[in-house]
Design a protein that fits this description.
With 387 residues, the chain is α/β, with parallel strands linked by helices. The chain has helices spanning 16-26, 43-53, 63-66, 84-92, 109-117, 127-144, 153-162, 195-198, 208-216, 218-231, 269-277, 309-319, 323-339, 348-358, 367-386; strands at 6-11, 32-39, 57-60, 79-82, 98-101, 121-124, 147-150, 170-177, 238-242, 248-254, 259-263. It has two domains: 6-150, 3-Layer(aba) Sandwich (Rossmann fold), CATH 3.40.50; 157-263 and 299-386, RNA polymerase sigma factor, region 2, helix turn helix motif (Rna Polymerase Sigma Factor, Chain: A, Orthogonal Bundle), CATH 1.10.1740. The structure holds nicotinamide-adenine-dinucleotide (NAD) and magnesium ion.
Length: 387
Amino acid sequence: MADSPKHIAVLGSTGSIGANSLDVIAASEGQLKAIALSAHSRMDELAAQAKKFRPRWVVVSDPKAAKRLDRKKLPSDCEVLVGPDALVEVAQHADVDVVLAGIVGRAGLESTWAALEQGKTVALANKETMVMAGELVSKLLAEKGGRLLPVDSEHSALFQALSAGKTDEVARLVLTASGGPFKDLPLHELQQITVAEALAHPTWDMGPKITIDSATMMNKALEIVEARWLFGVPAEKIAVVIHPQSIVHSLVEFVDGAVIAQMSPPDMRLPIQYALHYPNRVAGVARRIDWGQALHLNFDPPDRDRFPAIGLGEQAAKAGGTAGAVLNAANEAAVQSFLDGDLHFTEIVPACRSILKAHNHEARPTLEQLVKLDKWARQEVSRWVCA
Ligand code: NAD
Ligand code: MG
């Protein structure tokens, strides 16, 4: 008899990670089932997904958007849940096996936290939760026996490469970065970058927030902090290297000098599939390397004048405590201001630096303190914008 399918709650199903996750589920030949879908604003897309995947629940996290959902388009046995609390309810439900955390930004914190409180497995794309509260999340994991499986391609690569040795044999985690669209632009031209230019990523097709983060390299800064808490490796042992082809997704250097990498074309369906089917590997939908073609891989040290964000990531990973939450919130608000036309591209990182510097660092914050600081840092960005 066939095993019953693994029930996946796809939170953020209408986003880039969400859509890729549904591709993986559709290709799983019944091994995976989308038991819940969630969206914040795109109601027609949510209804179309519900029609195709027939989940038990659809969650609309924004109550205003829920008014636009045409319930007649949903399968008759599909229940609609509304509001942010519904994300928590679904994430904790006994019938959910894995929560795919694909919500963007700080909005993903409560549902990820709720799933881990129940000792569940979370396939984590929502890196902001680890940046904001990585140390507390690690404690929660140890307490409740849940599991975090990284979906971020670099962290999935590190997770896979780490299995080649023991934790105390790790010399360094090396995160690869494509360098984004501006890695070769003359520095004086960075000031004039438009939203459209910053949204055109050379190798990855992603949601707007992470695409801007990739252009400023704040994405790598956040990933340094994410790696620090996901793998319990100190900031001093995490390095960044520019690798424009996005084929090597990250590397682990062990104490003997051996370096283990994970390679595949840039396609998020592979890390998602690895997390959802874990611990099994299955033949899936992701693109493969064509070994009949020449493949050239470059690795360069990052230019820190061009990408000062990397230093902020290192600083936040070293400092721990409240630093990650402040950096994350300042960045989210600054990116939104840039997208709204209220901030220059080159002001995003300086705004984050100044707010990180201005905050009163606390080494052992509670989750409530982090949530408060998140609000504070966003207000500070508004002041920066008005100044
Ligand atoms: P996206 O903007 O394409 O999608 C975001 C999803 O979150 C949507 O379904 C949206 O409805 C939902 N959402 C937005 N605001 C919300 C709110 N306030 N409350 C509840 N839900 C809300 O983003 P994405 O590119 O899919 O990224 C999702 C997460 O995955 C981010 O944390 C990102 O850093 C991470 N990630 C993405 C990629 C990628 O390839 N896109 C790669 C690695 C990591
Ligand atoms: Mg990544």
